[in-house]
Amino acid sequence: GESVGLHLPTLSVQEGDNSIINCAYSNSASDYFIWYKQESGKGPQFIIDIRSNMDKRQGQRVTVLLNKTVKHLSLQIAATQPGDSAVYFCAGVNTGNQFYFGTGTSLTVIP
Amino acid sequence: DTAVSQTPKYLVTQMGNDKSIKCEQNLGHDTMYWYKQDSKKFLKIMFSYNNKELIINETVPNRFSPKSPDKAHLNLHINSLELGDSAVYFCASSQDHMAGRGMYFGPGTRLTVT
């Protein structure tokens, strides 16, 4: 079945540095990807999404890159702040409209 | 105002009991979901309802029964609770059933079965 996996379960970065969270997916038919942020004790919150006909999309301090050749996407957070500490999930949607979450990367921002 | 709310936030119960978790959304969305998050933070969809009609029913024991009295509510009833049911359960909603698009999650219900 489809899966999306994250390369590292944990990531620590210094405040002010840029963070890069990576995600690999298995189903080349996936046509839509989403990044979610989950803070402690809360539900996941939408950050940014990207369709498969794009290779880059930017939001406020966040950029998602999609490389369909190697089935990889990444979330870049610029000037990481303590409030960015959370678990980040990538998720994919395949052509059957099935939606899959990855396993999550825990980001810790060191002041 | 809370967009997607769940009650209770914490639920501790013994094996064999029956319990329910309630979910309400005030976003006017047509689709609601139940997800289970295990101790490793893995999120797995359990059910999806669109306009009170079941559209996704993943491989979930039939001890779990969702009920949607109207499109703003999707409750989850669990019979004969087992230790393995311990997890955080999230309700979510979206405008339509195009999975993942504009999905809003509730704060979660932490279920502990002893």
Helicity level of chain B, as a percent range?
A: under 10%
The end-to-end span of chain A amounts to: 40 Å
- Strand tally of chain B: 11
Helix content of chain A: under 10%
Gross morphology of chain B: globular
User: In terms of structural class, how would the helical and strand content of chain B be classed?
Assistant: mainly beta
Uncertain regions spanning at least 5 consecutive residues of chain B: none
Number of helices of chain A: 0
Number of helices, counting only DSSP H or I runs of 4 residues or more of chain B? 0
| Main pleated-sheet profile of chain B | 7 strands, mixed
Strand and helix order of chain A? EEEEEEEEEEE
**From the alpha-carbon coordinates, what is the Rg of chain B to the nearest angstrom?**
13 Å
Strand elements of chain A, count: 11
Write down the secondary-structure element order of chain B: EEEEEEEEEEE
Structural class of chain A: mainly beta
Question: Could you explain the architecture of this structure?
Answer:
Chain A is mostly beta strands and 111 residues long. Helix content of chain A is 0%, strand content 55%. Chain A has no helices and eleven strands. In chain A, a hairpin with a 3-residue loop joins strand 6 (56-58) and strand 7. Chain A starts with a strand and ends with a strand. Chain B is an all-beta fold. In chain B, strands 2, 4, 5, 6, 9, 10 and 11 form a seven-stranded mixed beta sheet that branches. In chain B, strands 1-3-8-7 form a four-stranded antiparallel beta sheet, with no helix packed on it. In chain B, a hairpin with a 2-residue loop joins strand 5 and strand 6. Chain B is globular and about 35 Å long. The mean pLDDT of chain B is 90. Chain A binds chain B through residues 32, 34, 38, 41-46, 49, 87, 89, 91, 93, 97-99, 101, 103-104, 106, and chain B through 4, 40-45, 90, 92, 97-108.
